[in-house]
Amino acid sequence: MIAAIVLALGITTAITTLQTGLQAMDTARNCTAAAQLMQNEMERLRLKSWVQIQEVVDSGDTTVAVPAGLVSGGAPFTCTREIQDLKADMKQITLVSSWRGYDGRTHSARLVTRYGKTGLYDYFYTAH
Questions:
Q1: Which residues does 6 contact at the CB level (< 8 Å), separation at least 6?
Q2: How far apart are the first and last CA of the chain?
Q3: Are strands 71-72 and 75-76 parallel, antiparallel or unpaired?
Q4: Comparing 109 with 103, which gets the higher pLDDT?
């Protein structure tokens, strides 16, 4: 009887550990995909001149093109862009990628950088 209880607890623990491991792998894969998506958009913006960046702002387009095959948990990734004027010669670009993870919750990653008339500056990245 005791052996059966210990065996049942061992199986339950193993299944829980496996599920936690799968969630961690899914989160890592999705964070990597989101970072790559945002980095590609940042590289695309880096190739634009100051005037072209301003044209993107003036167009009001905030949606970033996401590759068709990029799906997580049955739902596609989404990525949005926001460009703000910090000073006369500097803009702040914020990219936010969102996806639904293995656990069914919505996750997001954010990439923020500053773009000056002389080029792209520092950036930082957070994920939630």
A1: none
A2: 45
A3: antiparallel
A4: 109
Q: Residue 116: what are its φ and ψ, rounded to 5°?
A: -105, 170
SS3 content of the chain, % helix, strand, coil (to 5): 45, 35, 20
Kindly report the pTM of this predicted structure.
0.72
Residue type, 122: D
Tokens 């940042």, located at residue: 42
What 8-state DSSP symbol labels residue 16? H
Once rounded to an integer, what is the mean pLDDT over residues 112-127? 68
Residue pair 73/93 in contact (Cβ under 8 Å)? The answer is no
Q: Residue 33, Cβ neighbours under 10 Å: how many?
A: 19
